[in-house]
Design a protein that fits this description.
By secondary structure, the chain is of the alpha/beta class. The chain has a single domain, classed as Divalent-metal-dependent TIM barrel enzymes (TIM Barrel). The strands form two sheets. It has an eight-stranded parallel barrel, surrounded by four helices. The model has no long low-confidence stretch (mean pLDDT 97). It comes from candidate division WS6 bacterium GW2011_GWB1_33_6. Its cofactor is Zn(2+). Keywords: DNA damage, DNA repair, Endonuclease, Hydrolase, Metal-binding, Nuclease, Zinc. This is Putative endonuclease 4.
C-alpha cells in the first residue's frame, strides 16, 4: 500500500524527500515553488540533480506534484489565464526532467504527475468555462512534451468552483485533444461535501469512479476527513477520525481493492506541525493495517 502526505520543500526541494523519509512514508506530495506565487521560471538543473541524488538513498516510491493555488484555467482574463498555464508548464517540465533522471539512474520511483485545481467561473458561463479549462490543459501538454500527466483535482464545489462532480471532471478531460496524458486526483473530503456519500453508500461512489473516470486514470487520492457535513459544498479538512467520515470509513476506503495501486496522500490540519504530523501518520498506518 502506498501511504503518504503533503510535505514541505522549504530550504531546498530535496528536503521534501528527507521529510517523507523522516516520517517513514513511501509517497509524498510536494510543491517545488512557493504555493501562492506565480511560477514562471523552470527549476534549475542543479536543483533537480540534487533532488534525484537524495532519492537514491530514500524509501520514497511515489511523488505527486501539486500546482500552485493561484491557477484558474477557467479565466477569460488573458494575463491570469496565461500565468496559470505557465505555472503548470514549470511543474510539468520539472516532472519530466526528474522522471528522466530517475530512469537514467534506474531508481524504483514514479512521478505521478501534476495535480491542480481546475478553477472557478469568473467572467465566463459554465460551458465556456469547461471549454477554457480543456483548452488550457491542451496548451500546457503541447508546450511540454514527454510522458508526464496533468491531473485534475476534484473540488468541494464551493461557490463557482469547477470540478465538483465526476461527470464534470470527465467533461474537462473529454474536451482535450491530448487526453492521453490527462487524469485525476480525488479528494475524500471534497467528494463527500460535494454529494458523494462515502459513509452510507461507498459501493456506489467507488463504482461511479470506475465507470465515469476509470481507476487507471486516478493517480492519487487525497485522504482527508471532513469538518463539514455531507453535500454542504464547504472545503474544510479534518484530521483522520476527527471529522464526519470517521476512522471506520477512512479504513474502508484504504482497503478498497479498486484502490490497491493508488497512493493515499494526507492533507489534514495535523500536517502543520512536526509533532501532530507524526501522530497523524502513525494513525494512518494503523488504519491501513
Amino acid at each position: 500500500m502506498y501511504l503518504g502526505a503533503h510535505v514541505s520543500s522549504s530550504g531546498g526541494i530535496e528536503n521534501a524527500i528527507k521529510e517523507g523519509d523522516r516520517y517513514g512514508i513511501n509517497s509524498i506530495q510536494m510543491m517545488p515553488t512557493a504555493p501562492m506565487r506565480w511560477a514562471t521560471k523552470n527549476i534549475p538543473d542543479e536543483d533537480i540533480k540534487r533532488f534525484v541524488e537524495t532519492l537514491k538513498g530514500s524509501g520514497i516510491k511515489k511523488i505527486l506534484l501539486h500546482g500552485i493555488y493561484l491557477t484558474n484555467l477557467a479565466r477569460e482574463d488573458k494575463q491570469l489565464f496565461h500565468l496559470g498555464k505557465m505555472g503548470l508548464v514549470v511543474y510539468l517540465d520539472f516532472a519530466n526532467r526528474v522522471g528522466q533522471l530517475i530512469k537514467k539512474n534506474s531508481l524504483d520511483v514514479e512521478i505521478l504527475g501534476v495535480c491542480f485545481h481546475p478553477g472557478s467561473q469568473k467572467e465566463l458561463n459554465y460551458e465556456d468555462s469547461l471549454e477554457r479549462i480543456s483548452y488550457g490543459i491542451d496548451w500546457v501538454l503541447k508546450e511540454v512534451g514527454g510522458t508526464q500527466w496533468l491531473l485534475i483535482e476534484s473540488t468541494a464545489g464551493t461557490g463557482t468552483n469547477m470540478g465538483r462532480s465526476f461527470t464534470e471532471l470527465k467533461a474537462m478531460r473529454d474536451g482535450c485533444k491530448e487526453k492521453g496524458r490527462v487524469g485525476y486526483v480525488l479528494d475524500t473530503q471534497h467528494t463527500y461535501v460535494a454529494g458523494y456519500d462515502w459513509i452510507a453508500d461507498m459501493d456506489s461512489v467507488v463504482e461511479e469512479i470506475g465507470e465515469t473516470l476509470g481507476y487507471n486514470r486516478v493517480k492519487a487520492i487525497h485522504l482527508n476527513d471532513s469538518m463539514m457535513s455531507f453535500a454542504s459544498n464547504k472545503d474544510r479538512h479534518a484530521n483522520l477520525g476527527e471529522g464526519k467520515l470517521g476512522d471506520e470509513t477512512v479504513s474502508n476506503i484504504l482497503h478498497r481493492k479498486e484502490f490497491k495501486d493508488i497512493p493515499f496522500i494526507l492533507e489534514t490540519p495535523a500536517l502543520k506541525s512536526s509533532s501532530t504530523m507524526e501522530k497523524e501518520i502513525l494513525h494512518l498506518k494503523e488504519l491501513a493495517k
